[in-house]
Amino acid sequence: MVTYYVVQSFQRGKKGMLIPDQPKQARDESHCGLMAERLALTSASVVAFSRSGCPDTGDWGDAKIISQFGEVPSELLEMTA
Predict the structure, then answer these.
(1) Cα separation of 55 and 51, whole Å?
(2) Angle (nearest 5°) at CA 12 between 47 and 71
(3) 38 in a domain, yes or no?
């Protein structure tokens, strides 16, 4: 089993919609949180999360939010419920 740590940031589009940036992979939970804090200074919204599972079988658990800044899209938060 492996755990991936990901930071997803968003920019606000011309009509106010959130547009996702390229997701960034972090080394560990601490690094993930620090990356999210840094990106929050220049992004409309940021969410840092981890997800554990087995890449060989494709069996993945629910995402676990580490931190979030700004208005995170509800679709993304539903993935962690």
Answers:
(1) 11
(2) 40
(3) yes
Q: Does 16 map to a domain?
A: yes
The total of structural domains in the chain comes to 1
Q: What are phi and psi of 27, to 5 degrees?
A: -75, -40
Write the DSSP string, 4-28: EEEEEEEEE-TTS-EEE---EEESS
Residue 46, domain extent: 2-70
Pick the closest to residue 39 from 23, 15, 63, 51 (CA basis). Answer: 23
What would the pLDDT profile of 50-74 be if each residue is shown by its tens digit? 999 998 999 999 999 999 999 877 7
Structure tokens at 63: 């995402």
- Residue identified by tokens 């940031």 is 9
